[in-house]
User: Fold these one by one.
Assistant:
Number 1:
Amino acid sequence: MSDTILEVKNLTKHFKTKRGMLHAVDGINFSVKRGQTLGLVGESGCGKTTVGRTLLRLIEPTSGEIIFEGKNITKISLNKLRHVRKDMQLIFQDPYSSLDPRKTVSQIISEPIIANKIFKSSEEIHARVAELMATVGLAARLFNTYPHELDGGRRQRIGIARALAMEPKFIVCDEPVSALDVSIQAQILNLLKELQAEFNLSYIFITHDLSVVNHFSDEIAVMYLGKIVEKAPAEQLFKNPLHPYTQALLSAIPIPELGVKKKRILLKGEITSPINPPEECRFKKRCVYAYDKCDKHPDLVEISPDHYISCHLVEKN
Amino acid sequence: MDKNNLVLDVKNLFVRYETEDGIVRAVNGLNLQIERGKAIGLVGETGAGKTTTALSLLRLIPKPPGVEECDKMVLDGLDMLSLSVKELEKVRGKDISMIFQDPMTALNPVFTVGDQIAESIFLHEEVTYAEARKRAIEMLEVVGIPGERANEYPHQFSGGMKQRVVIAIALACHPKLLIADEPTTALDVTIQAQVLELMKDLRKQYNTSLIMITHDLGIVAEICDEVAVMYSGNIVEKGTLEDVFNKTKHPYTEGLFNSLPNINDRKAMLTPIKGLMPDPTNIPVGCPFHPRCPYMDEDCKKPQWERAISDTHYVRCSAYDRPGFHIKRRER
């Protein structure tokens, strides 16, 4: 069994809009190691959710390759994809809209089991649902309740139980705690970590919250307007961010401690439109270091072991 | 605290919503004093009563179903409880104003942003509309938007820019007290940093007192002087930043800090608070936090009151009556 569970090569997704081509994801490369977490961070509109959905082919990629467990799944038929998807699951951001309000907790969790015809008898299904509910910390008495009767944290647990139902190897967590209060957020993060250790799960953890991603990931990729601008092991990225955007992003995190002196890098302006973006570096307009070379978008290069950056400044220094 | 220089003095505020499903007790006997020019962070999780408190200070609680009871609410010498609706209209937007969480819905889509800022100035100050427009354009520039854009409509601005417009409206008449309800929650971090920086500057420039409602202790550390932690409709701990962050006293405040990922120590395990926020229609007797509190004893089920730790630091927790009691979080 290879160490890498998922590999993405040159993944691209362009959407056709009235005003032109929207470059949501623009030729990105990364891989996820078995049993580890890759954090995908970036601000709204940078394409992180599109990446997550394209990996599962919920959105068909425009070009590029998705290699899961050594198999190229980019072009396989939907019928074959069904089998692959048992191993790949998704946890959604909003525990309010991702659960069918007309189904009970047990119906929601048993849906993938029934759809994939894993168990035939209702006793077996019942037992499996009860087991899953116990795994994610949902009390057995909630078996026949409806989502609207439950709080956000419990609803997110339902979503996690549903994702675990097929015993997946790989889960895309799309902002799984953003809608939750801090005390509940901590409960869910701990749960996801325990499950990872127990079932040797690999995660892609999509979020805009940098302190959460630092806590949760082994490796972090920073996205800006459809491109990965920096990728490094979590500790390395936080200790030694190299891309000007990563530096600004990290300096913008409000830290709940007193006396932390930090130099804040305030970015001018806002994210430019991803529709028909110019050839230049996507970050050029907001970058304080921009110079003539930045008219062409830089490639992502490895500058120290496992530390990748897409910036012309590297050559300069 | 300088009791003679208060911009806001609230005593014993209760707000409840009488609904068909029961009585929602949103604010339960809250006391709050703010010194002139100071910024206080009102921190708490969903349902703690932060927004209801803010709306009550503006006397904007919808009645019915809302019912308010309060012993004292004085804004800069003005008895807010005795004012008529007409008089309140003169105060809101002039002496006290509010920035709402969602800039997308706080602005009127069919008026230009220039007109929306001018409206507030025209209503509250004795100026002609042309002058109000002129001041509106100045205000736009103060918040970092080019004056030419005054004739544009909200949909032509990005989220961060819209929040700047909202801030311009709120500060146009130099209010004495500004209430900001999660002003940056809908924004990205880099834009949030810009907006917070702007609020910090303007507050100094106009000497405005600020109530910053937020769930983010990081934001509080950055722009506030004091913190009040709310739980289940009451302030459970209040003090200076130093008091609350470094000499934490209330078990709930401790739980909040333990739930946050530590950016400097990524291996540290999170310690969440067990259980859930109480249902506001059925708040536990005594300290509302006692069912979730690791230090609970029988006294916690009796009525609670504030205990002074120092001149600036208050905690609403009966455990401090026990000799030698302290929470696990160490002083820093």
Number 2:
Amino acid sequence: MTAVEEEIRKTTADLLAEGKADIVIGFAAGSLPMRATPCFITEPEAAQQLVWNSYCLNNLAVYLPGYFVPAPSLKEEKPAPKVAIVVKGCDGRSVVGLIKERQILRENLIIIAAPCEGMLDVDITQELVGTNEIVCAQEKNGEVTITDEMGKKTKFSRKELLAESCRFCKHRAAPVYDIAVGELPQSKDALAPDNRFEEFLKKSSAERWEQFSREISKCVLCNACRSACPNCYCKVCFADQTRPNWTGSGGELRDVISYHLGRMFHQAGRCVDCGACVRACSMGVDLRTFTYKLVEDAGELFDYTAGLDLEHVPPLMDFNASDSDSFITEPE
Amino acid sequence: MADSKIAKNKIPELIKAVSADYTLYGPKAEAGIVALGRIHSAEELMLDYRNSTISAKELFLPRAEVVYEFDGQKFVDDKLPDEKRVIFGIRPCDCRALALLDRNFDTDEVKDPFYVTRRQNTIVVALGCNQPLSSCFCTAVGGGPFGQEGADVLMGDVGDSLLAKAITSKGKDFLARYGKFFSTAGSGSWDKQAKEARDKMSAAPTLIKPAFGGSELNIENLKSHLDNLFEDEIWETISCKCLGCGACSYLCPVCYCFDLVDEKTASGIKKIRTWDCCMFSMFTHHASGHNPRSANFARLRQKIMHKFNYYTERYGVNGCVGCGRCIRSCPVNLDIRQVLEKIAAAPSATKEK
């Protein structure tokens, strides 16, 4: 157990024991190699289940709105619980976004910022290892030793196995927090250049549309991207509405396109590039190239980066006469 | 004992001959996703795959299919699917899933014309699983890496050749029709491979077994146990981390729930059947606005109950083949083996009261 893990366990156990938190959202060990799993703790003793390692990939902020929206079946208004949540940079930024959009109550939150040097992605690792299944991974000084089912060991540098969103992440520490455990990373540099995205930017709009349509055609409309996204908290998603029916039944490419276009444009200036949608997708659709374009656009056109502070008003919540509208008046 | 065998270097010829007579489907990889897709030549066929990312369900229950079209005056084009197909190299878990779907779509009372026609028009040539994945648990739910349920022909990979055994008369006809590619002399057996695969599965630290005292998952016990757990708080605990996405159901080879929607055309409508999923909040949303399963825990309960209680009650078998796709695809690592383990360990609600 690392010192950070120990500190998380102690901190959260204390919060629960002292009644400062009703529930703690963190990570527990997963059932598969190189996986951790979201974990919900209400008793101090259970804090022993919490882990902090290189596999804490999920964006835990996705669970927060549920605690502050009463289920439709609940007639009585229960007071909102006090929720402690362990966050990396991306979860932390999502939490800030949700506070600004008034989906969660800042005063009921205890944000525990944990250090993140980028999380490792089991699927990327498996692809590098080949057809033999990964049995375990051991990490030491930036080097990861993978053992496969045949007992073969392969060494990788940590950087090779990073999840895509982590490789390009520029905000590895939560910007707003109440308690910090360990030493939060200060660096604002991405760990690798995002060549694929640069390639995408060079394309003409017709070529981009072609890439978008081709990529999206893999989608089976299971909606896992939406469910994994902390920003997708709508009580009824436009894709589920029947009066009117905004998207088709899924028999045609246009149905899939209208779902993704609708979902993505709602992400402008809100997406923190955590990669939850991409990892949730079992069809391997590269959603990130397109959502990251919106991240860049929000920065360029509205000078806004999602979730960095509680003060700046997000572009979709604001209007100024001087707002950029060149994307309407002078489209490419 | 297998009926015959085919040397692996003869497979391209077999594929060519079968393709001339049937539309051929088999495991192939495209952009990292393995699916049972259209095979045009043997190079596309990927027989050393572990299991496909997507199951064969889509070949029998398409994700979206026009049930009928009405042009405002009359019904148009209500032909049934008539493609004669061979699925070559499908895994036994997915074959067994077809046998389970048969119990629902091809019964004495109800015969789904689309499903039944596709089943009748398809020859299922399965390939035993020499290397099950650690997330596979077919043996715990009544199947096996060399199970033959749902298959017309079962093959086994024994190195330089594939052994083949006819399971049904359809399979027998298939092997007879392409007999020139197979040799019947000294065809041998895949017992060794089947045993190794089974041993591998039982040696792996499976999550299910300990909960049932070291024995294999006892489906009868699980069913009666679930009878008493409907109102239990366990569902809220289990469903905490569930995102309510449909990845598990969409990849499940047995989940068959569907929705019927009307889509407007220029002068009439198309009635379209699409996949649905009990994890979606709109799944049981009534026209009145009421939703009997308004909370996530009730939806996850439905999923488990349908597979391990209702299916068992109606058809005498549970609705899971242990392919492990839901385990591998779950974005939050909600492992169905752990769910079953928790359910098995839960004190029975009625006994408590």
